Queue: 4 jobs
Job 1
Amino acid sequence: MEETLELGVGQKLTVTIDDIAFGGEGVGRISDFVVFVPFVVLGEIVEVELIEVKKRFARAKLLNIIKPSPDRATPLCRYFGECGGCQYQHIAYPAQLLIKHKQITDLFQRVGGFSGAVIDPVIPCPKP
């Protein structure tokens, strides 16, 4: 029997971020229910507040980082998080490259049925 979750807007939860979705939002789970959270890093344990709840997923805002990732970085832009132009500045550059490679590999596998082996590593910018 499947467990029924009763989640609502305004509810606070603690989640572990186990993936980064295309577009930069972190993916946490409560049982099999997905919670998307911006401005988090893979592996972090965070406290969030639900701002939108749908049948199969929810969106949340970050309230507190309980256990930060070693890949968390200080954004260089003072407008990061406000203007919406960047999704990854809070993540160390080497980790950004791994995330982007995984996202492209996943996309090619899911949509095109290609093996992940056909995607070369991301070539880093000499001056990120």
Note: The helical segments are 93-112.
Job 2
Amino acid sequence: MTKKIFDLNIRVKSKDIVKEIYKITYNKNFDKDRGLRDQLRRSAVSIPSNIAEWYYRSSKNEFRRFLKISKGSCWELISQMIITDELWYLEYSLENIINELNHLAAMIGKLITSLK
């Protein structure tokens, strides 16, 4: 797989996760906890935003830094989704979004490694 295709897959997957988080947080259960809803959305949006920012940087060190931030946002979002599930805010299985976030974090990790 070429670097450009790999990059594109990461960006597409990260945007798909943002859409999924927005769908999840339109749930009426989040009306009573707008702080958590907003934090989930910020964490999700942070992933493709940092990927976009690194994409236009000139040095590999900057690329890695922004990718690490994106990967950290994946883990932050996983933690927040677990909390959301424990508060009974989710109307469907947590497993799918966790699997998607784990897969995205692994993809980002591979790209970070390829930049060394």
Note: Helices lie at 3-25, 34-55, 60-86, 95-114.
Job 3
Amino acid sequence: MKHRDAADFDVASVRQDFPALHQRIHGKPLVYLDSAASAQRPVAVLDAMDTYYRHDHANVHRGVHTLSQRATQAYEGAREKIRRYINARTTAEIIFTRGTTEAINLVAQSYARPRLQPGDEVLISLMEHHSNIVPWQMACEQTGATLRVAPIDQHGQLRMDAFKQLISDHTRLIAIGHISNALGTINPVAEIVAFAHEREIPVLIDGAQAMPHTRVDVSALGCDFYAFSGHKMFGPTGIGVLYGREALLDAMPPWQGGGEMILEVSFEKTTYAALPNKFEAGTPAIAEAVGLGATIDYLEKLGIEAIAGHEHDLLAYATQALSQIDGLEIVGQAESKASVVSFTLANAHPHDIGTIVDHEGVAIRTGHHCAMPVMNFFGVPATARASMALYNTRDDIDALVAALMKVRQVLS
């Protein structure tokens, strides 16, 4: 993707949109560098949800009264915003879920499980988040299929030669992360989809980390499924999206049963509703969907290309600054990366690093980042991870560097 010049991005103005950033932690101004775990929310999202709760709350789809119609319009309006933003063909292809994890589980249980047989294979990569590992393990255990894992290199990049060699006549589905949450690696998903489709193999993309950082066009990608979460992209928790090609979703059985996903029920037989309702059993997360719709509006106003340019500058600055610290080793230095820097510091456990820098007002993530196979590959129990977003600045990076110098001082 072509990056717009970072100078075009008014980060000072953007920061004013995020109330959570304007507080003190342990007496120090908050420096929030944990957006890969969960990003902060702008006022526009908070206001949209507040307006819904104060004025429009009612259950959707079921009522003829005004509040229900308002709620339904807001809920389905959010679906249309998402459809347009990711360039899906129809709102029937936009399924609301609780997040990326539920979206992947839905595909594993409703698409893969009925189709997999002993001898079949599902292909993933070593750098996947647990949410794109465990559902496939479960589906394979349930069906007798085999989970195959493509390797990565010491830079944290997918070894495409080995990946392609693992694709065989037995491969029934490929599930791959767009961007690694633990390493920041941007995978060549368009190339993977094209290669897979030449062999008539469907592809699911875990897009949780991609949506805040890059333009996602599911029609251009040609992927069969694309999953993402609201809270990673400055929206609410408890809401996410599964995009699926309509023909595939139409052929899949419902994953959960209950209200909303039915057309007609008798004790003898139930007829299921059409897409997307077939996969949205029960009362949905209405306010969260409204908030996610407001998130889409916010990102469109800023422009994802401008955001990407700003973050590209931040990543380069952070990589250079952290590399100057004695004993610090960056884990994952792929040629193509998003706004994540994972690192270790000599003679300092990542949990101690996280605790000390928190007392300096700096919020980073420490641990295995739900990517334990990645940690095992690099031979570390955990890393410290600084993840940047559209509201971060070079001053935030300088604050992190100063806090890490404090870590060295305390632990020396």
Note: The longest strand covers residues 171-177.
Job 4
Amino acid sequence: MGKISADQRTYLENKYGSRVSFRRMERKLYSHDIAAMPGLIKPLIGDTTPDAVVQPKTEEELIELIRWAVKQNVPLTL
């Protein structure tokens, strides 16, 4: 996964405040679900740690985030 730019990071910080995190530990926690990834698959997909974790409050915020991510060519996982 590519890294988000400084401008993209600033946008997320300004828009979502304390509901966006760039802390490594939190990003790592959100990089997978509760199931363990099979050892044979893990090397094929590489590092799945996101660049940021955003927690929209409303449907409107979610829609705006999706539109922003598409426009910025930023991968998004829901």
Note: The chain has one domain: 6-72.
